[in-house]
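Hypothesis: this fold can be encoded by more than one sequence.
Test: take the structure tokens below, design a sequence, compare later.
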């Protein structure tokens, strides 16, 4: 039996992991999907100052108060890029392996917003200002993003529209603050939007990708949507099972 902590990316809560969590529990594992502050069933707790530090504390407290050890710490997208390495950096003795779902750790001093291309960064800032009261990034047009995606179970898009909530913008603009404590931990990258070959090409040319090239890094390709917990949950669960 392994212990998993599952962290969702932007706009989502623990509910997004339901099929993956059920699969892993069916294999005998201890699974803790977590809604970060301001997300999912904790949406009412969002504040203007809800930032990356808030979300890091959410995970540290879960691990501490549930007395979890040898944790396979799984982060999708934003949670992988920012939250997972920070948690591992502060509590490396509790982490067995880090798993990044279509994501990778950002370098010290970089924020999630800075990773986006300039045009996307500008567009998001406008959305926050015009539709998010200056402090939240509204959910994306899910039906548009899913156009052409195969394998989505019936009702998935309806659930995404109904349950996703605005992302506290400070979580995107807070820079990562890391020491070197996390760097020796094993890590797995599950690649959906990029192939291993494409990632290795970016490692050589894009500084933000440099932490994806280490002796402790392994890669698994799972081609499909950026949100594999929806279009390929069984295959994702199998990969996570193997990661233990």
């Amino acid at each position: 039996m392994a212990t998993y902590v599952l962290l969702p990316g932007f706009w989502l809560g623990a509910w997004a992991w339901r099929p993956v969590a059920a699969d892993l529990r069916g294999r005998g594992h201890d699974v803790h999907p977590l809604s970060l502050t301001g997300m999912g069933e904790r949406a009412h707790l969002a504040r203007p100052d809800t930032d990356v530090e808030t979300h890091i504390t959410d995970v540290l407290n879960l691990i501490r108060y549930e007395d979890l050890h040898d944790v396979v710490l799984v982060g999708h997208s934003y949670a992988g890029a920012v939250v997972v390495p920070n948690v591992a950096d502060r509590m490396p003795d509790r982490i067995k392996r880090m798993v990044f779902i279509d994501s990778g750790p950002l370098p010290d001093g970089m924020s999630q917003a800075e990773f986006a291309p300039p045009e996307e960064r500008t567009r998001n800032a406008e959305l926050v200002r015009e539709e998010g009261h200056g402090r939240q990034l509204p959910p994306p047009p899910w039906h548009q993003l899913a156009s052409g995606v195969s394998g989505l179970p019936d009702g998935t898009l309806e659930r995404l529209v109904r349950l996703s909530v605005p992302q506290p913008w400070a979580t995107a603009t807070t820079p990562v603050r890391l020491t070197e404590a996390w760097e020796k931990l094993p890590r797995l990258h599950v690649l959906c939007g990029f192939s291993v070959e494409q990632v290795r090409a970016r490692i050589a040319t894009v500084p933000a990708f440099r932490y994806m090239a280490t002796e402790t890094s392994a890669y698994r390709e799972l081609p499909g949507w950026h949100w594999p917990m929806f279009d390929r949950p069984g295959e994702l669960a199998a990969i996570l099972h193997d990661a233990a």
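The chain has one domain: 3-243. The longest strand covers residues 95-101.
Hypothesis status: open.
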